[in-house]
Amino acid sequence: MVVVSDITKVYGQDAVSRLIRRRLVKALDRVSLEIRGGEVFGLLGPNGAGKTTLIKILCGLVLPDGGTATICGFDILRQRTRALACLGAVLEGNRNVYWRLTVKENLTYFGHLKGWIGRRLKRRIAWLLDYFGFKDLAREPAANLSRGWQQRLAICVALVNDPPILLLDEPTLGLDVESARSVRDLVQRVAADQGKTVILSTHHMELARHLCRRVAVIDRGRVLTCSDAHALFQGASTQSYRARVAELPPEALERLRVRLGSVAPKAVIGTDDHEVVITLPDVRWESLFDMLSLLRDEGCNFLSLSRGESDLDEVFLDVVRAGREADGPGGSGA
Amino acid sequence: MNVLTVLWAETYKELIESRRYTLNLALSIIVQTIIFMGILFLAVSFSPIRTPEAVARTAEVKSFLLIGYIVWTFAMFAVNNMGQDVTTEMVLGTFEQKYMASVSPVVVLAGRALGNVVVSVIYTGVLLPVLILISGVRLSIPWTVFPVLGVTLVGLYGLGYILAGMALLFKRVGQASYAVQLVLLFFGGFTNPGEAGGVVGGFSRALPLTPGVEVIRSLVLDGARLGSLVSTGAVTRLLVNAAAYLAVGLAVFCLCDRVARRRGCIGKY
Ligand SMILES: Nc1ncnc2c1ncn2[C@@H]1O[C@H](COP(=O)(O)OP(=O)(O)OP(=O)(O)O)[C@@H](O)[C@H]1O
Ligand SMILES: [Mg+2]
After folding, report:
1. Which side of chain A, N or C, has fewer Cβ within a 10 Å radius?
2. What residues make up the domain containing B16?
3. Which of A188, A216, A235 is the last residue of a domain?
């Protein structure tokens, strides 16, 4: 459906940027992905990872410096208009529609831009208005809609020519919890009922877990991992135990470290504001008992024991951190 | 088919939006009338109105200026709006969606241009009678003026494409288009390249406005036939000029489009 191979983008190589001596920024570094028909695919990554750049390349708004991408088999460079006919996009921010035009005028106008006309367009618009719940708002100028409904309208407009692929760049950015949830449900419905292939970028791990079948984590222009969303977030449900004890003298701390290493090698000891925090990322009871008896043997002043679930964000950060460690310092500047 | 649909959509939207600017357009007509009165006043003050020949000459000068001014009004729309529209849409944030239409951005802009022409025809339809009334000149306009005007507009919108391309890269082109408008007004609308001769005459004729204005003046003021103007070379000059501006305009726009897409600054403001 969408095949991205070896896409590289370095900003600052065009004539104007060179003229004003812009710094080179490597936004994408040989990115390859394959998104299958009908799946919801998530692009996760911290700020500046290159998500928007990748989406804009697929939209034909940014020219890559290397690599190829095809949409429904059409090359985005050589068959631009045919590739574009296969997708609708909602880009970052809330300015994807004309605020002064009404809901219906927006749909009509963008329908025309996509080459639809006449009765076919009328029927499509009537259907969309109904499906997206705009029935009573059709004559409302987009400016009067709430932020959440504007985003809904943007998605609606992106689907006006019934394209098989929907690209969403941070669809819930700036929305309150309720609106974000309603947009999420909408996307899910569009994907499930309409069989649309959805590619979305987000910072919201919860959104990604809820919607995406597969996700790619990208950072500094590189794909760190591309896997089943379920598999990636599986780690998130892993429990860990955290024991807090009062501050120890350095030699006692060192002894604890050594002894703990032999009974529970995965345990992590850290110090935090007159406390020692021992995290045990292990669900086995024996390790927990071993750790507790060790703490007693060492005469630690026990403060608390808690069970924690490492959250989705942690999983994500772990992937990014691991990627950066493998990469070494620096990186994004080319 | 898609091309026609997009042309229609753009023209239609331009009309919807202009309706909301009716007041603005009305004010603009008043401003333009004031400017034209000022220019007439200057022109008349510098010619001694004593002899009957001088009086006749003044009337001639007035019609001469009026035609230049009216055709320049079309140029003003072309030059002002093509670049300005791109900037405005970038600010609004809708530009990128527009760029993803089913046809190339060149066609989308052509639709814009077409809508613009329609608006400028309506606008001039109001302005011209007002100016005729105020200046007291008598004009009879033969139908041949319209195709000539059409060809002139093609060249002017070629220039518009250049400004639109610049707007893609440099965002704000207001001052540049203002400068271009002034040059067109003084060296296109008001200069008589035949009389000026030399460098000024050459420069004037190289502008996209002048050859059209020259032909229209011959048609309206001298009652010349279009056929006879073909033999003097005036029509050829016009055609070559318009074609050249269109070709250069499209080439510059496409170049700017490429650079802007490499730069990733389409829609960035
Ligand atoms: N037009 C541009 N010119 C120069 N550099 C750019 C341009 N657009 C993006 N960049 C840089 O490229 C890198 C990737 O940016 P991009 O917007 O693709 O990231 P992102 O993943 O969408 O980030 P965010 O989460 O902040 O939206 C960043 O370092 C950014 O500063
Ligand atoms: Mg982004």
Report:
1. C
2. 3-263
3. A235
Q: Kind of pairing, strands A197-202 and A165-169?
A: parallel
Q: How far apart are CA B212 and CA A34, in angstroms?
A: 56
Q: Which of A235, A262, A284 is the last residue of a domain?
A: A235
Same-domain status, A273 and A223: no
Is the minimum CB–CB distance between B97 and chain A shorter than 8 Å?
A: yes
Q: Which residues line ligand 1 (CB under 6 A)?
A: A 11, 25, 27, 45, 47-53, 332; B 263-265, 268
Question: Cα of A27 to ligand 1 centre, how many Å?
Answer: 6
- Closest ligand relative to A51 C-alpha: 1
Contact B99 A61 (CB under 8 A): yes
Give yes or no: residues A299 and A180 share one domain: no
Written as six digits, the tokens of A200 are 């979305």
The proportion of chain B whose per-residue pLDDT surpasses 90, expressed as a percent, equals: 47
- pTM: predicted TM-score of the whole model, two decimal places: 0.84
- The arithmetic mean of pLDDT across residues A246-275, rounded, is 84
Q: For residue B140, is pLDDT > 50?
A: yes
All residues of chain B having their beta carbon less than 8 Å from the beta carbon of residue A141 are: none
**Same-domain pairing of A8 and A77:** yes
Q: What is the pLDDT of residue A212?
A: 92
ipTM score of the complex?
A: 0.85
- What residues make up the domain containing A278? 239-309
Domains held by chain B: number: 1
- Cα separations (Å) of B190 from B121, B201, B213, B245? 21, 12, 10, 20
Largest CA distance in chain B: 66
Are B109 and B63 spatial neighbours (Cβ–Cβ below 8 Å)?
no
CA B231 from chain centre, in angstroms, equals 26
Q: Which residues in chain B have Cβ-Cβ distances shorter than 8 Å to A116?
A: 5
CB of B60 less than 8 A from some CB of A: no
Tell me if A187 sits within 8 A of A204, measured CB to CB.
no
**Chain center to CA of B263:** 31
- pLDDT at residue A227 above 80? yes
Identify whether the C-beta of residue A57 lies closer than 8 Å to the C-beta of residue A76: yes
Q: Total domain count for chain A?
A: 2
Inspect the interface and report whether the beta carbons of A113 and B98 lie closer than 8 Å. Answer: yes
